[in-house]
Amino acid sequence: MADANALFDSACDRVLEHFKVENLKDLQRKALEKLVNGEDVFVIQPTGSGKSLIYQSAPMVFDVVKKTTFQSIAVVISPLTSLMQDQVKFLKSIGVTAEFIGEDQQDDEAKKAVERGDCQVVFGSPESFLSSDRWRKMLSSTVYEQRLCLIAVDEAHCISHW
To answer: What is the distance between the alpha carbons of residues 12 and 16, in angstroms, rounded to a whole number?
Structure first.
């Protein structure tokens, strides 16, 4: 147990350094801890409270705690294309591999990178996953079966139909 706690602390330290934040809020730390312990997590917090850091950092935390030999992947469902694009730009700027899929994604290499599992964080709209055989098959591929550490629904208040 002490070794697991030390690994989790080490993973959190890595997140702080990589994302250039002073500390994790209690909610962020608890959510990440529950995720790596295989528990479902449901977070409702106001805008600006740090929810995004949970799913943005989860692959990094999983890789440290689980001592993976591969790069873990977080899939984020978001109905807002502009938000996905902004988050991808930010994550790339700090060295986190990220892409978005959907009708607005014109870069074929980005799409292929997502399919190969080369991205730590993959954003897509609900429609992207529901209306495209390509992306549904991707989620059930061996790569995603092995590497997927979480599926997050972001900005759920924008989703009008489940």
So the answer is: 6
